[in-house]
User: Fold this.
Amino acid sequence: MGDTRETRLLIIGSGPAGYTAGVYAARAMLNPVLVQGIEPGGQLTTTTEVENWPGDTEVQGPDLMVRMEAHASAMGCEIIADYITRLDLTERPFKAFGDGGTTYLADAVILATGARAKWLGLPSEDKFKGFGVSACATCDGFFYRGQEIVVIGGGNTAVEEALFLTNFASKVTLIHRRDTLRAEKILQDRLAKNPKIETLWFHELDEVLGQDAPPQVEGVRVRDVRTGETKDIPCKGVFVAIGHAPANELVKDVLETHMGGYVVTKPDSTETSIPGVFAAGDLTDHKYRQAVTSAGMGCMAALEAERFLAAEEGQTGLAAQ
Ligand code: FAD
Ligand code: NAP
Assistant:
């Protein structure tokens, strides 16, 4: 039998939304408990330079997240290395079941589980995942020193990954299905100026090519979306950077979602359809998906949770015990 932890406020997730909620909730004397999940620090730990976090002209993503964790901890937020496998929101106190066997009982919950990389869904992509196919240039770029690499996608992530990978690769081919990038103009300029990067417009990935034993990528087969013609491009690494989907597994059957799975919150609020359950960050945000907006929503969620608990104090749940 695992142990039981009681808290007035449980924060699930350790990205900018979760840690900011932790700072505010701790300063509101709520003694919050924050469960980090399998990616402590969240998505920013998978990137290098962050240039749009106010106050830092340039900061390394992992460093920023270590600082956020230290900040939340210093304010009094208890940070726990665990992963929530199931959530019972049918009655208060809410129950969250940790992978390590702990059951968390909480009067209020802030969901800040963020988003995860999307995959194309090709059998060959799956077959070579970890053997040349990756969704994280920061994690795996180093393995491709002096090699040719392709990057799939046309958003900020794809362009940043392509630029970063030129630190290692002899050549990077960015493959995009249209002839217009979603990436910010400043990134597009850097891309155009980088002599190691070639962009292949109007193409999609059909198949990752490689040998079976040991598994190793040798190239990709791409298709021209206008003509249907295919061609092969030799490469040793394939970085899929086609966006992120909200990590809504814990709540997708109990909370309303929209726009591909993002949790719906009330206008100008982080309140969900269940009183006492708040959602912040990329889990709810199909529009901006930035560190600073996630942090802002984490702040809102903590303030709203504090008001909710204050209004309920002495009436229901753990606060009454
Ligand atoms: P995330 O950062 O996604 O964190 C989610 C957290 O939830 C993780 O800690 C995870 O472990 C936890 N979690 C998930 N499921 C569970 C569970 N079941 N139990 C417990 N914990 C769980 N934005 C910018 O503003 N500037 C940038 O330069 C920038 N660069 C980026 C580069 C890359 C490569 C990527 C992928 C994104 C970038 N972004 C950038 C976007 C930014 O990282 C996100 O908007 C932001 O991290 C979202 O914060 P979040 O707190 O909502 O969630
Ligand atoms: P994104 O903006 O959603 O872009 C995804 C890209 O992948 C698009 O170009 C899309 O093509 C392409 N794509 C999607 N599905 C595809 C498929 N099945 N086959 C081929 N291509 C496909 O995702 P993102 O780049 O990961 O960015 C996510 C969020 O994080 C954004 O809000 C972004 O601003 C933020 N972010 C910010 C920074 C920064 O501020 N420096 C860095 C990274 C990420 P189409 O264009 O044709 O739809």
Notes: The mean pLDDT is 95.
